Amino acid sequence: MTAPVLVLVDHTVDGAVRAPVRELLTLSRELSGGAGVHAAWTVDGVEPSPEVVAELASLGATHVHRVVVDADPHLSAVLAEALASLLDATGAGLLLVVSSFENKEAAARLAISTGAGVVTDADGLALVDGRYVAAKTVFAGTWNTTCAVTAPLAIVALKPNSVQPSVVEGAPQAQIGEHVVAVSDKARRVTLVERTERPASGRPDLGSASVVVAGGRGTEGDFSVVEELADVLGAAVGATRVATDEGWIGHDAQIGQTGVTIAPRLYVGVGVSGAVHHRGGMQASGTIVAINSDPDAPIFEIADFGVVGDLFTVVPQAAAEIRRLKG
Amino acid sequence: MRSGAGGNVPRVRIVVCVKHVPDIQSERALGPDGRVVRDGGDGTLNELDENALEAALALVEAAGGSVVALTVGPDDAVDAVRRGLQMGAEDAVHVVDDAVAGSDVVGTARVLAAAIRHLDAQEHVDLVVLGMAGLDGLTSLLPTALAELLDLPALPLAAELTVDGSTVRVRRNLDHASEVLEATLPALVSVTDQANEPRYPNFKGIMAARKKPVATLTLADLEVDASRVGLLGARTEVLEAAARPPRENRVLVQDTGDAGVRLAAYLVDNQLV
Ligand SMILES: Cc1cc2nc3c(=O)[nH]c(=O)nc-3n(C[C@H](O)[C@H](O)[C@H](O)COP(=O)(O)OP(=O)(O)OC[C@H]3O[C@@H](n4cnc5c(N)ncnc54)[C@H](O)[C@@H]3O)c2cc1C
Ligand SMILES: Nc1ncnc2c1ncn2[C@@H]1O[C@H](COP(=O)(O)O)[C@@H](O)[C@H]1O
Predict the structure, then answer these.
(1) CA nearest B249 in A: which residue?
(2) What is the pLDDT of residues B189-232, one digit of tens each?
(3) Pairing, β B187-191 against β A143-149
């Protein structure tokens, strides 16, 4: 039993596909069992370029839908109605989205309007005996679970860095279609007064970066050491809530239960104590490195490589040595 | 505090949904049935629901009105609404029914929706306030699911919240953008930990809360079909749950002058650079 898969294509204001979408498409190739992979591009003033369509096809999309809605698709009620309409049109048995707050808002609405079973923050997904079975870690990364969707329609929000993306050599072209949606009056009751996209930082995106260096209170507001290490590692810069509350860095850099959830290959905590709220957003990382002057800091309970020392000497020394080793 | 109210505000009646969750500082576990173990006595009010209560109480203090704390959960969950009373809520409602056990988000949302309609029938509800997430399941699905069921405009993830007349306005910070949303009451909002600094209940509040009753409701009182909630109504099923094995081969070095060099070597050896 296989059914078409619908994939929501998150994209930037410049029309680039966000990296985690590549993972969704890679995963759906197998899950669709040849029944079709439908990529949904919501036209929010930005069109999918021919290069983007080719990229989506190379990742496995058989169809690319330009979803044209008569309201702002950034509103969750609008996005949910657009996706419901597309689920209908494609006959998809699975909707895959990147796990973000916005996408989860739409997923929750779809659970009510379509009867779908929803799994959020999944880090794996397989078809087992005709059911979608998702893997996810819970309780701040301390438990592994698997969860089956028992409803006919499944919606799964996948965390970035869960799947190794790959392209199909010689993939056929995707069929491009336009899907026009007229949303209900009730979806228009919220007004999006203002939406300000954050400018790109020149560094990898925190949520999907493969290496993250995070700074905490121990930096005393001097993030230059954190940035220097991030530069040599090609890493994204993250932070604890203390650092963002202090205004040392923007709130979008906050890692943790009320910030961004990350699972990079390498996480480096610099002057971070490892409070449970912070761990909830990073404990699923591949390798955890921590530099902290307090040998009793809780982060050392989960660190693969811990240094008890002063970050202001250890981190610059490490950065210089890495630079030297890399030549 | 960033939440507050502008001038010219009529009395508002606010329902705050609060959840009793295992303390995140405790050893949390899943049982053989894949459900959260909730009987360790380590339960507490979900921290983010303190932010929800604080936001509601601040609005009512500025504008006049009242706050009702509402929870759905087993016997222990009454602690969550009691905490709400201590912080300053006027009324507390606890929906408790064996049939609710094992509900997924849709089941919980159905029960909360029925309870809010029940309260609204008694006296008009202007605003429903929730936390941005339960720190147990951390799904953040409930707020918009509830809005969909109640047919209310939703303004989730408020880092700032204002009510001016009948207009509610929220600023929210997303991964790649920040937004300002606006709607007309009645509406539903969820708040983040950026919205405010929750108050601690004072002695007076604690004493006053002792005298306040908690109304208990069952599914029958709310005319909710038991087959649509609980395990019967769930659309997801936990198959396996296991505590993660601890990380192996962990190294802790004390800096004696060359820890930075050793750290670099570790990263290179493990092909992390
Ligand atoms: C509802 C709620 C939600 C929250 N959500 C989040 C969240 O999403 N993310 C988050 O991060 N936090 C969150 N928090 C806050 C969290 O509880 C902690 O307060 C926070 O993570 C601590 O940040 P920190 O590690 O930077 O600071 P601290 O805990 O103060 O740790 C600083 C560390 O730096 C070390 N240090 C100091 N100087 C040096 C030096 N020179 N060299 C080396 N080490 C040094 C110290 O030994 C210490 O361990 C939340 C809290 C609440 C109540
Ligand atoms: N059983 C419950 N009773 C009352 N409120 C709840 C319950 N479950 C969730 N909530 C509310 O929904 C918010 C988000 O929870 P969740 O979507 O489960 O992460 C919480 O912060 C609470 O405000």
Answers:
(1) A304
(2) 999 999 999 999 999 999 999 999 999 999 999 999 998 898 88
(3) unpaired
- Provide the shortest C-alpha distance from residue A172 to chain B (in Å): 32
pLDDT of residue B8: 46
Within 10 A of B239 (CB to CB), how many other CB atoms are there? 15
How high is the ipTM of this complex? Answer: 0.94
From chain A, the residues in CB contact with B141 under 8 A are: 104, 107-108, 111, 118, 120
Contact, A77 vs A85, CB < 8 A? no
A166 has pLDDT over 90:
yes
Confidence tier at B5 by pLDDT (50, 70, 90): very low
Residue with tokens 């809010």: B116
- Whether residue B6 is predicted with pLDDT greater than 70 in this model: the reply is no
* Element spanning A63, H or E: strand A63-69
- DSSP letter (8 states) at residue A139: T
- Do residues A175 and A200 touch, judged by C-beta distance below 8 A? no
- Higher pLDDT: A164 or B137? It is A164
| Closest-CA residue of chain B to A242 | B194
Contact A118 B250 (CB under 8 A): no
How far is A32 from A292, CA to CA, in rounded Å? 47
Query: Ligand 2 centroid vs A255 CA: distance in angstroms?
Result: 22
Residues A320, B192: C-beta atoms closer than 8 Å: no
Could you give phi then psi for residue A256, rounded to 5 degrees? 145, -170
pLDDT value of residue B42: 74
- CA A299, A266, B193, B154 dihedral sign is negative
Least Cα distance to A190 among B1, B218, B179 occurs for B179
Structure tokens at A93: 């048995």
Burial of A247 (0-12, 13-18, 19+ CB in 10 A): exposed
The set of residues, in sequence order, having a beta carbon less than 8 Å from that of B199 and lying 6+ positions away, is: B54, B57, B87, B88
For residue B72, the SS3 value is strand
**Looking at residue A1, what is its pLDDT?**
63
Residues with Cβ within 8 Å of A298's Cβ and at least 6 positions away in sequence, in order, are A273, A274, A275, A276, A279
> pLDDT tens digits for A30-77?
999 999 999 999 999 999 999 999 999 999 999 999 999 999 999 999
Asked if A287 and B272 come within 8 Å (Cβ–Cβ), the reply is: yes
Q: What is the pTM of this model?
A: 0.94
Residue B25, chain A, CB below 8 Å: the answer is yes
Are the C-beta atoms of residues A45 and A59 closer than 8 Å to each other? no
How far apart (Å, rounded) are the C-alpha atoms in residues B81 and B76? 10
The fraction of chain A above a pLDDT of 90, given in percent, is 94
